[in-house]
Specification:
Helix content is 31%, strand content 27%. The protein has 2 domains: 38 residues, no CATH class; 169 residues, Alpha-Beta Barrel (TIM Barrel), CATH 3.20.20.140. Strands 1, 2, 3, 4 and 5 form a 5-stranded mixed sheet that branches. The N and C termini lie far apart (84 Å). It is of the alpha/beta class and 254 residues long. Strand 1 and strand 2 form a beta hairpin.
Length: 254
């Protein structure tokens, strides 16, 4: 048995190596035919991934590969950075499957969320590593839970920036059925200074990363697009969102 002093010295010398080995995430070296870096196509480049981060990319001769790294050969393939989707609605599905009105009014929330988990996975597999989801279209704050499930590794999907319910002027959005009052709407209705400030803050409090506002919509004569909020209301929405460090994105076609 080693004397206590020698054992202590041995452990003291060995500890940095053990700590480094435990701290270093697993490494994978990707060897494609080419790498597109967003500006140019590079033949003979490799990409080193450590854990869930890209540690290095460049000519193979210039990349220091950690011992024990796994090498993945990708002949004939080109790697490129993850794509960013700027306007998605993961809680909707194609209207040739189910109309927008029926999705908002008839589909159970659990069904819509289940579909959204599949859409999130398919979005990631299509190469999009970030997606800005701009409104749940009547599904409340379900996008916040979807984002949390992805962040916690429960389901696969891109990094999400969510807008939650979005904001519309009363009467300007939908669904609309003349014979039915107080229908659930595809976005949160609010008008005037007090209601708009409260609505923006509510959405932020529930987890909105960005505030979505319908600055116009098809509520004019014969369904033409017309402004919804006044300039003063839009300015107030932006000011309130900015006070929390968040931006505003607008649906606008006029």
């Amino acid at each position: 048995m080693l004397p206590l002093r020698r054992l202590f010295l041995f452990c003291w010398l060995l500890w940095p190596r053990l700590a480094a080995a435990q701290a270093a995430p697993p490494a994978t070296l990707l060897r494609p035919a080419a790498v597109f870096d967003g500006e140019a196509l590079h033949l003979g480049w490799v990409v080193l991934v450590q854990g869930d981060k890209i540690a290095a990319a460049g000519p193979a001769a210039g990349i220091s590969v950690p011992a024990g790294a796994t090498t993945l050969e990708l002949p004939g393939l080109t790697l490129l950075p993850g794509l960013i989707e700027g306007h998605s609605h993961l809680l909707l599905h194609p209207y040739n499957e189910t109309s927008w009105d029926d999705q908002v009014l008839q589909e159970p929330l659990a069904l819509r969320v289940a579909r959204a988990t599949v859409s999130a996975r398919n979005t990631l597999l299509a190469g999009f590593t970030t997606s800005r989801d701009l409104g749940t279209e009547g599904a409340g704050y379900a996008d916040v839970g979807l984002k949390q499930a992805i962040d916690q590794g429960i389901i696969p999907g891109p990094r999400l920036l969510v807008a939650t319910r979005a904001l519309v002027a009363t009467g300007s959005y939908g669904p609309h059925l003349a014979a039915v009052e107080n229908l659930p709407q595809g976005a949160q209705e609010a008008d005037g200074p007090d209601a708009l400030v409260r609505a923006v803050r509510e959405q932020i409090g529930h987890g909105a990363d960005v505030v979505k506002v319908y600055a116009d919509y098809r509520w004019g004569p014969s369904g033409t697009a017309q402004p919804t909020f006044s300039q003063e209301e839009l300015t107030l929405i932006v000011q309130t969102a900015r006070s929390s460090g968040r931006g505003v994105v607008a649906h606008a076609s006029t």
